[in-house]
Amino acid sequence: MNRHHSNDEIDWKDLKRKPEKLFGFSYFYVLAVLVGIGLLYISNLNSIGRNAVNPTVFPDSAARISDIPLQSPRIIPPVDVLKAGFSSPELIKQGRDLFKANCSSCHGDNGAGEGLSAAMLNPKPRNFHILKDWKNGSKVTQMYKTLEEGIPGSGMASYNYLPPADRFALIHYIRTFANNQPADSIGDLKALDAAYQLAQGMNVAGQIPIKKALRLVVNENIAGAELVHKSVSQLNGSQDPGAVLLKRVMVDEQRVMKSAVSLKDRVRSVDDFIKMVTADPLHSGFKASVIRLSPDEWNRLYHYVFSVVR
Amino acid sequence: MVEKTLYSITALFNTPDEIILAAQKTREAGFVRYDVHTPYPVHGMDSAMRLSTSRIGLFAFIFGVLGAVSTILFISWVTISDYPLVIGGKPFWSWPAFVPVTFEVTVLSTAVLSTIAMIVFYFKFPNNAHPLHDTAYMKSVSSDKFGLCIQANDPMFKEAAVKDFLRKIGGREITPIYFDPDEIDHGQTLFDVKFLGVLAVVALTVSAVTYFSLNVLLKIQPFNWMAEQNKLKAQQASPLFHDGIGMRSPVEGTVARGYLPYPFKGKPEEAGNFLVNPLVPTQKVLDGGKSKYLTYCSPCHGNFARGDSRLQGQFPSPPTLQSDKVRNWTDGRIYHVITEGQNAMPSYAPLISPDDRWAIINYIRVLQRAQNAKKSDFK
Fold it and tell me: Dihedrals φ, ψ of A286, to 5°?
């Protein structure tokens, strides 16, 4: 009888006879060791890359809208043109950051005129590496003129809101893209100083919180809004021939009166009025058929509308 | 009548204890080719019969190794030479990815092949009958009896002696089992004409059904009464119209509702001169303008219209709206830019309604006022 076989969990005698069965008791330790070896192997891999630096997540500015702080008007101290007009490593370094922030979206990171926006621009942005056919030239003073005034008829806007010192730094950095840059004479720099009154410093407008600006704008327009309201109610109750004519040719009395209120200083004659209305009748609240009115009717309309709003 | 060939002699027992005892005695008597059939697994039977370890484990091991090796080789061939793909910048032979597949195929091939091996070696496939099938003995042992079966090919087998022995150890209903005469001939039947014919019919039928279901059945639309209507679709011809074209142009000289053309297309200066902001900047209008500005404009122009994009260089930064140029523009001129786009800025006409555009302009004026405050504003 081998009864004890079925009673014992582990048959020690049998185990002694067949030691390979020991594996059944120890395989999970073997597995653990194998897993350990695997982890060790992976941690020593040369080809594996780990994030040494946490990924940068730009804080979404929509979540941190803060109002503009109150700031009185101030004057940025004048730059010494004779000093800022000549390149220095500090200026170039400062200019590099400014270039990235202000210029690279069109002129490209390396100044080759191949920024992301360049594809849409006509004419194409300047390639700073080639000194040929520059509209204003590439002297410091000439480039300053470009930054001050922009280049009309092209995508180049005026950057006159940048402080003059920043503009000089920017110019010096841009000039590093090409070799053999023409040098400015002392006279050029002095002429620049005189032309843009650089010695006087730069006036920076004051700032007020948006909330306050909003209140101011609303308050300033209350009178205009009331005038529109008053004009509309007067029109509705009026039997004046001009009012009758107006009601016949308009679709939106609010728009008619708002346009009239906005234009009361700009429109000085019937001709002005006709030009304004016929340019886009529907926009000013008139029916398209208003363009068929006779000169006499235009006259009546003009006098009625502007007598009401003035 | 064909002479019957004896397969074995069987005996039935009533209890598991009896059958264990009987198995032990049979083994002790020196029989080797015998088997025990019980309705359920009886513990202690292996040691009672002194069975050696089943060799199916060895088969399973071999099949497992074969499965694992062939899977690894196959995946390696696919990923290295047949269809190399860079996945996540890893090398072609990226073994950790092979582990799950290898594991699965190993388990699958072990299970399936071991089962097949068992059928082939123990049941002597392609034999699909066994003398014990359909016997009263098998019915009993698969219900409530315990059976012992001593095979005729045992070296110690003698019919009368075995019957005596079984009776002596307490067996009842001692019955001889004979081979089914049809099954004795183990000759090769694989190339039997009948078999091959059936095989061909099956192959043809399966191919035909597969072809039909994949190429015809799958393409039949169950309900087509919405997709196929008696109407004209874009680009379709129609004899109803004199030009034979199904698509109609709008009637000349009319404008569909909501499709008013913009009269100052390509004329920014005229738009600036003739378009007047129809909205009075009230609190309500400005609140609406602010919400639209923050939604549509601020991602590029910044929350304060300084051209300091909220997208932080992920998209080209536009110029500031605080410049003298934009501040001196009329509302109509700004409206023109929003409507038509300018340089890299696309048209926002499809996204922002005209009234919302005017409200946005009113809000831009507020932002400009906030950053170019008059002296009187500081009182």
Answer: -100, 160
Sequence-separated (6 or more) residues with CB below 8 Å from residue B207: none
* Assigned CATH for A74-204: 1.10.760.10
| Cβ within 8 Å, pair B343-A120 | yes
Beta carbons of B301 and B318 less than 8 angstroms apart:
yes
Name the CA dihedral angle for A109, A114, A120, A121, rounded to a multiple of 10 degrees. Answer: 100
Judged by CB atoms closer than 8 Å, whether chains meet at A161 and B282 is answered as no
> Which chain A residue's Cα is nearest to B307?
A102
Average pLDDT over chain A, rounded to whole?
A: 84
Query: Residue ranges per domain, chain A?
Result: 74-204, 217-309
Instruction: State whether A216 and B369 contact (CB < 8 Å).
Output: yes
Q: Is A228 on the interface with B (CB under 8 A)?
A: yes
pLDDT reported for residue B324: 85
Determine which helix (DSSP H) or strand (DSSP E) holds B332, and give its type and residue range.
helix B331-340
Express each pLDDT in B166-208 by its tens digit.
Answer: 888 888 889 898 887 776 665 666 788 888 999 999 999 999 9
Chain B stretch 177-236, residues whose beta carbon is closer than 8 A to a beta carbon of chain A: none
Nearest by CB: A115 against B280, B312, B316: B316
Residue B123 CA to residue B129 CA, distance in Å, equals 8
Which of B91, B275, B371 lies closest to A280 in CB terms?
B275
Which pair of structure tokens corresponds to residue B251? 């009637």
- A249-265: pLDDT as tens digits: 888 888 888 888 888 88
The helix (run of H) or strand (run of E) holding residue B12 is strand B6-13
Q: Could you tell me the domains of chain B?
A: 6-183 (no CATH), 268-373 (1.10.760.10)
Q: Which residue of A has its CA nearest to B279?
A: A258
Residue closest to A260 by CA, chosen among A303, A216, A204: A303
Interatomic CA distance for residues B279 and B292, integer angstroms: 15
Average pLDDT for chain B:
87
Query: Taking CB atoms and an 8 Å limit, are A254 and B378 in contact across chains?
Result: no
Rounded average pLDDT over B291-318: 84
Residue-wise pLDDT tens digits, A114-138: 887 887 787 888 889 888 888 888 8
B148: tokens are 């012992």
Cα–Cα distance for residue pair B349/B338, rounded to 1 Å: 7
Minimal C-alpha gap between A285 and chain B (Å): 9
Whether chain A has a CB inside 8 Å of the CB on B275: the answer is yes
The reply to whether the predicted model has a pTM over 0.80 is: no
Which distant-in-sequence residues (6+ apart) come within 8 Å of B367 by Cβ? A210, A213, B293, B304, B305, B321, B322
**In 3D, which of B44, B48, B37, B40 has the Cα closest to residue B13?**
B37
Confidence of residue B99 (pLDDT cuts 50, 70, 90): very high
User: Which tens digits make up the pLDDT trace of B142-163?
Assistant: 989 999 999 888 888 888 888 8
Q: Does B58 touch chain A (CB under 8 A)?
A: no
